[in-house]
Amino acid sequence: MHKTAVVILNWNGxxxxxxxxGNIVQNSVNNDTIVVVADNGSTDGSVEWIKTAFIDVxxxxxxxxxxxxxxxxxxxxxxxxxxxxxxxxxxEVSPCWLEPLVxxxxxxxxxxxxxxxxxxxxxxxxxxxxxAAGCYIDKYGFPFCRGRILHNIEKDSGQxxxxxxxxxxxxxxxxxxxxxxxxxxxxxxxxxxxxxxxDLCWRFSKLGYRIAFIPGASVYxxxxxxxxxxxxxxxxxxxxxxxxxxxxxxxxxxxxxxLFVRKIIDGTAALVFLSRLDFKNFMAVFNAHVDYYKAGKxxxxxxxxxxxxxxxxxxxxxxxxCIVFEFYVRGRKTFDLINWN
Length: 341
Known about the structure:
The protein is an alpha/beta fold. The protein contains eleven helices and 14 strands. Strand 7 and strand 8 form a beta hairpin. The mean pLDDT is 95.
């Protein structure tokens, strides 16, 4: 058994692996840490290349594309470690990036997960969309980060270099306590990809765990490696999975009203796409809601299961406002301008 397993989920990502796997191995592998590539049924020669180029890297061949959520669920069942590090294949790590994360987990047993500072690989003065300096959600389930509100990304000038509790840690790069992962049940495989880490961290919070941002570690993320940020498929997954997450996790007192308002906001977003003649993204939002209703029975069962594990009913670090309203109406486009009161 190793203390830490850095696990990279791969699906036809040989280009990213050629660029970044050597860097990850060089800055991660030691007596306590292994690097594992879990392959989601790639057909681009990824597996054969890894086995030839990196004999120190363990390869798990999952056989099919189970998505981000299902792929990690299957992979982590096969790995015996105290900590799992979920790391995207399109990330360059810095020297000693892992030590601050592991040290924090060692010294804070009530922490289930934490993340480093995630910066843009293409412009290292900027935060990266998927994680930045720690992540939150608003009352309607919209995610945002210290350093990234909606599509507005800030420059990193050290303004968020403070260890702090957050609501969720980015699946692009996060370290997770294996015992907490198992207690919470891992990712919801029905999400396939996108927002599954927010759903998981919400369950961590319900179990009484904390989530943290660690400023002493940095990684550099290309972003949009599997799906571009403007992809209708990404739009569909984000809108559908956000509804899944809200239904599963909201308390009874907030469920109906929150979902009612969220549906109005989503409808407005769909009309904006339509006004721009972006029919593919319009249909992505429409289909997301259709499939949310189709999943009603399964979601009810999952909501019951989540309620049974609940120790803390109202998680902290949720903005009790609409971040979309704050951004577009009040012009609060950077994290430091948000009024949490």
